[in-house]
Write a structure and sequence with these properties.
alpha+beta; uncharacterized conserved protein from methanopyrus kandleri fold like
């Protein structure tokens, strides 16, 4: 069973923020041209969760951010992200969305 880092936050203005990243990426800085993308514990958390749990949280999310193959593929498979909406930073897939 695949586990990824998951952090869920509820904001004071009613947003449900879900951040997911693959295990091997936490703590790294991805570089693509002038873009420097820090995969930080502050944002993605330190708690591991299985992908089923992550998808359950994505169902409630108003804001979501995913980085890494397993995290992004789970969001695509569950219908939250279209394959053509995925960007790549330093060869790693990244997707984010906001529900209005």
């Amino acid at each position: 069973m695949v586990s990824v880092y998951l952090r869920v936050r509820e904001t004071h203005d009613g947003h449900y923020v879900v951040a997911m990243c693959d295990q091997g990426l936490l703590g790294k800085t991805l570089v693509e041209g002038t873009v420097r993308f820090k995969v930080s514990k502050d944002f993605y958390g330190e708690d591991l969760a299985d992908l089923k749990t992550c998808v359950e949280h994505l169902n409630r999310a108003t804001i979501a951010n995913m980085v890494g193959t397993a995290s992004v593929k789970a969001a695509i498979k569950a219908g939250f992200v279209h394959e053509q909406a995925v960007g790549y930073i330093d060869g790693h897939p990244h997707a984010q969305w906001v529900r209005l």
